[in-house]
Amino acid sequence: xxxxTLFVTTAINSWKxxxxxxxxxxxxxxxxxxxREVAPGKNRVYYLLGHLTAVHDLMLPVLRVGDRLYPELxxxxxxxxxxxxxxxxxxxxxxxxxxxxxxxxLNAAFANLSPQQWLERHNSISEDDFAKEPxxxxxxxxxxxxNHNSFHAGQMRLVSK
Amino acid sequence: xxxxTLFVTTAINSWKxxxxxxxxxxxxxxxxxxxREVAPGKNRVYYLLGHLTAVHDLMLPVLRVGDRLYPELxxxxxxxxxxxxxxxxxxxxxxxxxxxxxxxxLNAAFANLSPQQWLERHNSISEDDFAKEPxxxxxxxxxxxxNHNSFHAGQMRLVSK
Lengths: 161, 161
Prior knowledge:
The first copy, chain A, is mainly alpha-helical.
C-alpha cells in the first residue's frame, strides 16, 4: 500500500468508525427513544438523525460524487430547528432507511476516489480560490463531516441506555 | 506542498479547528458554568474538560513525542467517573491552564513530524502487529482523538449560552 493510500484509508476508517457508533446506538433505540430530547429543551435524537442524514446527503454534490437522494429532508432537519412542524413529515423507519442508504452511497463513492482525487477541490470553492487554498479539498470535507458526526453522536449518546 | 504534506496538514487543521471550538466555549464560560451538567445526571463540563486534558496528555507518549505533563489528572478525570471525589482536586484556572499547555505541546510536536513519521506506528501497538496492521499509525491516533474531542464538544455545547 502506498503511503498516500494509507493516509486516505486511515481517514475513511475514522469516518466509518463514527458512523458505526451511531448505527449501534440506533439499533438499540425504539421509536420512542428517538423522540427523546438529548437534554431538556434541546434537539430530539430523531431530529439529529435527520440532520446528519441531510448533511451526509449534501456531501454527494459537495464531494462531486453524485446527486442528492433526499433533498426533501432539508426543510425539516437542516434549515429549520427541531419541532418546527407539529407533525413529523418523515417516519422513523423511513429516516433510518435514508440514513443507511446515503451512507452506503457515500462509502461506495469513497472507495472509488484515488488519493489524488481526495486532494482535488470540493464543490463549494471556485477553481481560482482553490489554487490559493489547496487544503480546501475533498479530504477536508470528509474530516469535517466526521467531526460533525462525532459532535452529534456525543449528544445522542446522552439518551442511550 | 507535496500531496503527503497536504494530507497531514488537512488532518492537523481538523484537529486545531475542534480544539479552537472548545476554547471558544471555555472563553465564554464562568467557573459556575463549568460546574453545570451537560444533561441531568450526566458529566459536568468541568469533568469533560479534565477528561479531554488527560486524554490529550496521554497522546504525548502514545504518539512517542514526549513525556506526560499531567498524569495526576488521571484519577479524577479518566479512571473514575465524575463526582467520585466530593472536593475537586484541581481548580478551574489550573485545569484551563493544563488544557492550553498540553495542546500547545501537542501542536509543537505535530509540526515536527514528517508525513512518513505520521505513518509510523503509535506506541500502543507492537512492531510485529504493526507490520500486519499499518493503519494503526500516529495519524489514526490523531483522527481518533479529534473525533473524541468533537464527541465531548457536542455535549459541552449543550450548556453554552
